[in-house]
Here is the input.
Amino acid sequence: MDEQLSDRKAIIARYAAGPNQLETAIAGLSEGELDIAESDGTWTIRQIVHHIADGDDIWKVFIKRAIGNPGGKFDLQWYWAMPQDEWVKSWAYASREIGPSLALFRASRGHIVQLLERMPEVWEQSLLVTWSNEEEQEVKVAWVVKMQAQHVAGHLDDIRRARQAHGV
Here is the structure.
């Protein structure tokens, strides 16, 4: 098997595993326990869950746009205009139930995985992204999928540390 194809399949599998991994990481937590954080000044488990789902939803749009308009532009200036902690407040992460965000995350990942499996050419398609420093860069779908898989993994570590800090 071609090494690049093997890597693509492994990355897609890791990306696809995100919803199950997140649900496993929070399994057994009560509503109150979703509001624990590793330490003062860090996000609660509830906030992390919403952040993962919202970030994934934003990058899902990137992938869909890359399919429909390869070589086009993807502007996230509206998102980077505020610090992450402000989005946490603006999108009411602290007070929302996590069920809809978990469902969105699972549906989005399933939708994108299906596209990637049926349309392997999408893997190399790209858009121009203007980063927060206003630098423009060509970004491939492959990079976004890998980045989003890593994003979840990093936040799963945050959840594990919060649980350990509180013995839950």
Observations:
- The first strand starts at residue 73 and ends at 75.
- The first helix runs from residue 3 to 16.
